[in-house]
Write a structure and sequence with these properties.
Layout (H helix, E strand, L loop, with lengths): L1 E5 L6 H6 L3 H14 L4 E5 L5 H10 L7 E4 L9 H14 L1 H5 L3 E4 L5 H11 L3 E5 L3 H7 L5 H17 L3 E3 L2 H7 L10 E3 L19 E9 L6 H11 L2 E7 L3 H11 L3 E4 L7 H5 L2 E6 L8 H8 L3 E4 L5 H5 L12 H14 L2 H14 L2 H18 L1
Parallel strand pairs: 1-2, 1-4, 2-3, 4-5, 5-6, 6-7, 8-9, 8-11, 9-10, 11-12
Helix pairs in contact: 2-17, 4-6, 7-8, 10-15, 13-16
Length: 381
């Protein structure tokens, strides 16, 4: 079976490594290969030097040689608009590869049209993956760019309507898709994000951890990081932030201006996160919108107590009875949730959170669900 994955438009293997995502993202495909030796994976990326980077990873035994990285041609200019043109030309540039594909899949919505177009040209089954809806992120960020918001909504509608098979990470995303798609249940799958529970595990009791809060991830408006910083100040607790994104400079200036007890650091590779997480008692995720948050289930797997906002799918993951949920996205409300967590969290809760992730979101279980869906799709083609 030859599985071709189309990277998100303008995303490169180099970026995955720089942002600490590589170890996490490759895991699903390397697990496929372990579960079935007949599988070959092809990553079509937007980096001009990604195949060279992949060669180094092969030599370091950091990437399976059955994952083949297909770089953007070196003569192609950089930039999102050039990448848009490239995405439309991919089916013709990689004619030979795509004609041999068993199944084509997109990693996210942006750029997924390249996979859909390829599937029509070569008559191959296609799966649209939606880990989140970009229009919801744009709306949550209170963007004033109404044209961009409407364009994202239109692309979501077109792709969901045109795609023969869809994977989403949450039921709420699938319910939204069903508003403008007539796909039946057999053509859709809700497959949540996964955790390497062998790597992400609790190795330190709560009482031996620092009385601090950690956030790691993208530094973007929908994460409500300014409100989180203010809430930590009100609750008199130190906050450590690891990440990168459009708000990096603004957050840095804000922290310095107010002299808050906040440390802002670059992102870490995914493989280093378990050691980091086991140093903390609390993890905060107070976003106004989320897909299926990987950082939440990774921290839970390490026994860290989450302090979260009242949105799906966060509340679905933790359950209706979970106590440390803010009533709104205001700093006052988040501060109350922090204070409650500092007062009422326990080792039993930490252990239960870790066990919940092992039972629902382990990589072996999620990989089997996804591979079974691939086989179902292939059986209908």
């Amino acid at each position: 079976m030859n599985i071709v994955l189309f990277f998100t438009r303008s995303v490169t293997l180099k970026q995955w490594i720089a942002q600490g995502l590589f170890d996490r993202e490759k895991l699903l495909y390397e697990t496929f290969i372990k579960q079935s030796q007949s599988i070959n994976i092809y990553w079509i990326t937007y980096g001009r030097h990604d195949s060279i980077i992949a060669s180094n990873l092969y030599n370091q035994n950091s990437l399976s040689r059955k994952i083949h990285v297909i770089s953007k041609p070196p003569f192609f200019p950089e930039g999102k608009y050039f990448d848009l043109i490239y995405s439309l030309l991919i089916p013709f540039i990689y004619f030979s590869l795509l004609s041999r594909a068993s199944l084509i899949k997109s990693n996210q919505l942006d750029g997924s049209w390249a996979g859909l177009l390829s599937s029509h040209i070569f008559r191959k089954p296609f799966i649209l993956r939606l880990g989140f809806l970009p229009s919801q992120v744009e709306y949550a960020a209170c963007s004033r760019n109404k044209i961009r918001f409407k364009l994202l909504c239109l692309i979501e509608k077109i792709m969901a309507s045109a795609s023969p098979n869809i994977i989403t990470t949450t039921s709420s995303i699938l319910n939204t898709i069903h508003l403008f798609s007539s796909l039946g249940k057999k053509n859709c799958a809700i497959i949540p994000n996964y955790v390497n529970t062998d790597l992400f595990s609790s190795s330190r009791e709560l009482s031996f951890r620092d009385e601090k809060i950690v956030y790691y991830g993208r530094l973007s408006p929908e994460k409500n990081l300014f409100e989180l910083i203010e809430a930590c100040h009100l609750a008199n607790i130190h906050l450590d932030i690891f990440g990168d994104g459009p708000l990096l400079n603004a957050l840095n200036d804000y922290i310095k201006k107010h002299n808050y007890k906040v440390t802002l650091s670059p992102p870490l590779p995914n493989s280093e996160l378990p050691c980091l997480l086991n140093k903390y008692r609390y993890f905060a995720l107070v976003s106004s919108t989320e897909g299926m948050p990987k950082t939440l289930i990774e921290s839970m797997s390490c026994g860290v107590i989450p302090i979260v906002s009242p949105i799906e799918p966060i509340t679905n993951i933790l359950g209706a009875d979970y106590n440390f949920v803010s009533s709104s996205h205001s700093s006052d409300s988040i501060s109350l949730a922090i204070t409650k967590a500092m007062t009422c969290s326990s080792q039993l809760l930490s252990d239960n959170l870790s066990q919940l992730v092992k039972s629902r979101y382990s990589i072996s279980s999620i990989a089997k669900q996804e591979l079974d869906f691939y086989l179902t799709v292939l059986s209908r083609s």
